[in-house]
User: What shape does this take?
Amino acid sequence: MRQEQGVSKEVEKNFIDLLAEEVRQKESEAEEKQRIADIKLLEAKKIASQYQKEADKCNSGMETCEEARERAEATLENQMKETALWELRARQRGWKEGAKKSRAHF
Assistant: This one.
């Protein structure tokens, strides 16, 4: 009976040792997986930051382009008004569209 108790206690100790080793192994695996996840998260943050910088540059470029388009549009509008004014003055002084001038007096 004592021998059986001794064997039983040794089996129990071996079982506990095996469980403890399994727990340590699982902890080690979990730590490695966490380390890999942390690395991937850091890489993802870096990539997201790069994309954000590119998006900011793109938005800035679009704003600059839009401002230039608006200025060009305003300049064109002013030129069209000025052209219309000069054309009106020329018509008031007898100019007709399509009329040819003689170069004889040059």
Remarks:
- The helical segments are 2-92.
